[in-house]
């Protein structure tokens, strides 16, 4: 049976067919849907972990217990997962273990263009890279087989275009491997220095064997066309190259270890060897180091993602005709009724310096709010605020960190512990919208529901803050501008660490909204004060303000800005 599938869904299907028992992940675009689809299979235990390090450790533990396990994340998540991953490469596996990573060339929803292939090389674990949904399913199954054959974690790499593309997949039955049982083996599973030194030798021997065996792998293939030009590529780029050129292609299904000798043979058959790969010259540099004459990056560069049109233009100078009409840019904005909007309005009004974090609230950096001053990675806002505080800047009492509830659990808690322990005076605002918003409404430990919607213990953020030594914890309604302003003024004046929890559920969690607000033209003085919050439901048409009833969720924040009471509730 064939089914049209999103590639992320195909990875989940591959895990199902491979007999996987445990999947632990942290949501991150473009990888999120993999675990959401996994959760639909009752045969697989699945969960959202607090962060990628925890998810990887859960997968390692399940693997050692003897079952096949998987963890999924986006590229920056591998930075968090690297600690257990690198040492799991030493311990090896019992049941097969696969780490799925989705890279984001062109940074559609990310803060950098990190190339995860280098993690596979650095951790000395193999990495597979499919080019479509059908391959994604088969490569996932093959990854588990390789994991058990070579006693190693295996990485499966997607990129945004592959993860979110669709193609037909042949569905097969689930096959559960024969059960494996944990056998106590300190030399293999306890990585104290004496054991780790010996296991490092095992890793090197395994890598040498993989490097030799990969030259015969069916996951790599050659497609002979014109021998004037030969191209080495992988993943989504393979699809572009196949469409844009008539060159012969060496398609690398395994991108680490690279099939050096197989590519060397391929190179001998073509007049020119070109490496076409997004981001870093990962394949190109390895081939050059092994004496294979090739080139590529001087043509294509290291930034952004490719397309058939861009490859055709770079190679042949053929430009794709420009569209007749330019499509207007539509940068992302916070939704109408977003509870973060009022908080950022207050912070800008008070002239507070703000260290931001990764999530919907990062959009608070954009006009007209322009409230964020710095943002690096998940959880960093609190640490940066503490560092700003310790730098003894003249602004130190007007420095706050903002962070979402899911991100706070991901990697913000330890930063508050650090600030309390080291006698800081920074203020953190937890923007608690009761969900993991930016990646599509996934539950987290503070929502009281598991990935399958089952009720579970709900993390009490207020009690947690008190437990780690925060003396002042204030909870406010994020829609109440006066309460938010009062809390910010009072808490930033303290000589100790303080936390404000600005709580209001994401406006998209419910579709049952009161009637939209409207502008009373007789009362409106056209002062435009309501436009300062940047709500997409408030429109400036022909110099007159109106509220788009199709967008308004009746949050009421705009009514607090109008001095003339011109914004009124709609009629039921």
From TrEMBL:
Tagged with keyword Ribosomal protein: no
Sequence positions that bind [4Fe-4S] cluster 1: 524, 527, 530, 562
Cofactor note: Binds 2 [4Fe-4S] clusters. In this family the first cluster has a non-standard and varying [4Fe-4S] binding motif CX(2)CX(2)CX(4-5)CP.
Database matches in InterPro entries: 4Fe4S_Fe-S-bd, HACL1-like, IorA, Pyrv_Fd/Flavodoxin_OxRdtase_N, THDP-binding, TPP_enzyme_TPP-bd, Transketo_C/PFOR_II
Cofactor(s) the protein needs: [4Fe-4S] cluster
Residue ranges annotated for the 4Fe-4S ferredoxin-type domain, each copy included: 515-536, 543-572
Enzyme Commission code: 1.2.7.8
Protein name: Indolepyruvate oxidoreductase subunit IorA
Gene field: iorA
Protein species of origin: Candidatus Stercoripulliclostridium pullicola
């Amino acid at each position: 049976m064939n089914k049209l599938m999103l590639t992320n869904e195909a990875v989940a299907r591959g895990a199902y067919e491979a007999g996987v028992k445990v999947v632990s992940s942290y949501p991150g675009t473009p990888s999120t849907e993999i675990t959401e689809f996994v959760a639909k299979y009752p045969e697989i235990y699945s969960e959202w972990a607090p962060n990628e390090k925890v998810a990887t450790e859960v997968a390692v533990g399940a693997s050692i217990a003897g079952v096949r396990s998987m963890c999924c994340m986006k590229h920056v998540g591998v930075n968090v997962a690297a600690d257990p991953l690198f040492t799991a490469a030493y311990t090896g596996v019992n049941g097969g273990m696969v780490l799925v990573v989705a890279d984001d060339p062109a940074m559609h929803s990310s803060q950098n263009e990190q190339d995860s292939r280098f993690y596979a090389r650095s951790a000395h674990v193999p990495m597979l890279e499919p080019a479509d949904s059908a391959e994604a399913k088969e490569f996932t199954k093959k990854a588990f087989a390789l994991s058990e054959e070579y006693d190693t974690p295996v990485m499966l790499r997607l990129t945004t275009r592959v993860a979110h593309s669709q193609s037909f997949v042949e569905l097969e039955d689930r096959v559960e491997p024969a059960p494996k049982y944990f056998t106590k083996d300190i030399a293999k599973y306890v990585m104290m220095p004496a054991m780790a030194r010996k296991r490092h030798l095992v890793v090197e021997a395994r890598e040498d064997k993989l490097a030799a065996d990969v030259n015969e792998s069916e996951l790599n293939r050659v497609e002979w066309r014109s021998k004037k030009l030969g191209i080495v590529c992988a993943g989504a780029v393979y699809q572009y190259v196949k469409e844009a050129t008539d060159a012969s292609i060496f398609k690398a299904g395994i991108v680490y270890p690279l099939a050096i000798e197989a590519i060397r043979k391929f190179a001998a058959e073509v007049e020119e060897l070109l490496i076409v790969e997004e981001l870093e010259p990962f394949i190109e540099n390895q081939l050059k180091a092994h004496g294979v004459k090739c080139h590529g990056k001087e043509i294509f560069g290291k930034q952004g993602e490719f397309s058939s049109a861009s490859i055709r233009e770079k190679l042949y100078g053929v430009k794709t005709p420009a569209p007749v009409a330019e499509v207007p840019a539509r940068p992302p904005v916070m939704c109408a009724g977003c509870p973060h909007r009022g908080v950022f309005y207050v912070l800008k009004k008070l002239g507070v310096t703000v260290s931001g974090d990764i999530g919907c609230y990062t959009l608070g950096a954009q006009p007209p709010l322009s409230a964020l001053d710095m943002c690096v990675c998940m959880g960093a806002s609190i640490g940066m605020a503490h560092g700003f505080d310790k730098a003894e800047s003249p602004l130190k009492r007007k420095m706050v960190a903002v962070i979402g509830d899911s991100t706070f659990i991901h990697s913000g808690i330890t930063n508050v512990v650090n600030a309390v322990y080291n006698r800081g005076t920074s203020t953190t605002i937890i923007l608690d919208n009761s969900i993991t918003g930016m990646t599509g409404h996934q539950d987290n430990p503070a929502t009281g529901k598991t990935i399958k919607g089952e009720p579970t213990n709900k993390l009490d953020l207020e009690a947690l803050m008190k437990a780690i030594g925060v003396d002042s914890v204030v909870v406010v309604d994020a829609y109440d501008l006066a309460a938010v302003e009062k809390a910010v003024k009072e808490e930033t004046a303290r000589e100790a660490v303080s936390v404000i929890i600005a709580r209001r559920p994401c406006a998209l969690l419910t579709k049952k909204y009161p009637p939209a607000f409207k502008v009373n033209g007789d009362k409106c003085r056209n002062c435009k004060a309501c436009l300062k919050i940047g709500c997409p439901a408030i429109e400036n048409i022909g110099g007159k303000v109106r509220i788009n009833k199709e967008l308004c969720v009746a949050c009421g924040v705009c009514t607090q800005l109008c001095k003339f009471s011109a914004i009124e509730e709609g009629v039921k």
